[in-house]
Amino acid sequence: MEGIIAVWTLRLSGQQRQRGPNDFRTPYERDRTRVIHSAAFRRLQQKTQIYGGHAGNFHRTRLTHSLEVASIGTSLVRHLHCSIDNAEIKEHLPSEDLIDVICLLHDIGHPPFGHGGEGALNALMASYGGFESNAQTLHLVSNLETAYEPFGLDLARRTLLGILKYPVSRSTLLQTKPDLELPRLIEHQNREKWIPVKSYYDFNQELVDWILMPFSREDRDAFQYQHQGEAAHHSLDCSLMDIADDIAYGVHDLEDAIHLGLISRHHLETPIFEEVFSDIFELNYSRILEGLFSCHPAVRKQTIGALVHYFVTSVYIDKNEKFNSPLLAYQTQLKPQARRLLDLLIACVFDHVIDSPPSRSQEFGSQNVLINLFNALESNPHRLLDSYSRSRLLMVKKTGDLERIICDCLANLTDDVAIRLHGKLFAEKFSAQWENNLFS
Q: Is 228 exposed, middle or buried, given 0-12, 13-18 or 19+ CB atoms closer than 10 A?
């Protein structure tokens, strides 16, 4: 068993205890420390979760969302340890340190302006390898962060496996989408076409091969199987993170929407919600409604807590017989009635917040900000890029290398910095006052 553990705690650098023999932290504790001290993690405090940065000081950002996902992920692992008897499953469940760092990392590759920003960068990069937030996460922690150059944050192998949400390369998935006209994607009038394929970047193939090396050839092939143009499988750790993310989205983002007056009681007081709650004896529909829309903050908070607790205690472990490795065979699932309720809550947030006219118009404008910035930086990269990105220009060897550097630069920006940089470069609120660093 120790040999198996050692395989998964390996790092690309081969280093295990950079701080010497008196460092008694576990490998995943070290990973968590590296993540929370990284610049990329700090930038999440000014990146859009669902609502723009000026909606108020109550709503969640990517940073607070990531902290909540980590808290839920830890609760899921504790619940599974206490509720299952299967010794093999318990042996292979992630530690609390491991699930914590995977959840903290899950959104670290998101660009400014949420999924709207992701779509814009994907359209701009369509001919140069595309852009996708989960793929960017793997790229960022393994290549772009500088603390342990040239290995990024030099995270443990199992940590990287946990954030490999879509284990299929972009080029593989694009073979199933012949109708996608990549060279002209940015010119497409329907911006829904800008949504990226869920994959990892082709230039990270060697890294992905290293992550999956401990698995048998049969398991690797099955794990990287795609179905109808989408990755079909998650690892055990990733399945836990994914459910924690869904719970945070469906419950905590709902809380934000109610607080901001974007979702009202009548949105949840519908026959379909009443029907779903009728199958859940742990939750009383009328009491949940009263609590969510109570004028007393404590009552509302307790109701939110009750919903999260219900979802956490509704998880179980299923087994996919296609795989031999327990890290791939075992999968975390939600009980059907819990899954149905959570999907309804997520759909409610999407319909009345994300897909609302004010949100879509804001998204459209933010995409234009990134398009303009990309074109400006591409026109004069040696003068306009930040110092770190300028140093990477020495690595430009082929078509697409420059565009990737510009894309990485823009993906790192926070919402506010992107807006201020746009104002400076396009003289919207021009000031002759000299600024030390436009990118911070």
A: exposed
Question: Residue 116: enclosing H or E segment and its boundaries?
Answer: helix 114-124
* Number of residues assigned to the chain: 440
A 10 A CB-CB count for 60 gives 21
Residue carrying structure tokens 């150059």: 149
> Which ranges constitute the DSSP H helices of 199-296?
205-212, 217-223, 236-247, 253-259, 265-268, 271-278, 285-292
Q: Which of 76, 66, 208 minimizes the C-alpha distance to 135?
A: 208
**How far is Cα 270 from Cα 348, in angstroms, rounded to an integer?**
11
Residue recorded with tokens 């990269």: 381
8 Å CB contact between 96 and 346: no
DSSP code at position 227: E
Q: What is the pLDDT of residues 298-307, one digit of tens each?
A: 999 999 999 9
What are the residues whose beta carbons fall under 8 Å from the beta carbon of 254, sequence distance 6 or more?
263, 292, 345, 348, 349
DSSP secondary structure letter of residue 226: E
DSSP 313-356: TTEEEEE-TT-SSHHHHEEEEE-HHHHHHHHHHHHHHIIIIITS
Cβ–Cβ under 8 Å, residues 412 and 136: no
Tokens (6 digits) for 259 = 């607080």
Kindly indicate the confidence band of residue 100, based on its pLDDT and cuts at 50, 70 and 90.
very high
- Local structure of 199: helix, strand or coil: coil
Torsion of CA 273, 278, 283, 287, to 10 degrees: 70
The letter for the amino acid at 242 is D
Instruction: Report the topology of domain 2-40+108-235.
Output: Hypothetical protein af1432 (1.10.3210)
Find out whether 245 and 188 touch, Cβ atoms under 8 Å.
no
In the chain, where the domains are located: 2-40+108-235, 239-357
| Residue 123 to residue 310: CA distance in whole angstroms | 40
b/e per residue, 367-401, with b = 16+ CB within 10 A?
Answer: bebbbebbebbbeebeebbbeebeebeeeeeeeeb
Can you read off the two tokens belonging to residue 401?
A: 């290398």
pLDDT given at position 388 = 93
Tokens read off for 203: 């230039």
Can the peptide bond before residue 27 be classed as cis, meaning omega within 30 degrees of 0? Answer: no
* pTM to 2 decimal places: 0.93
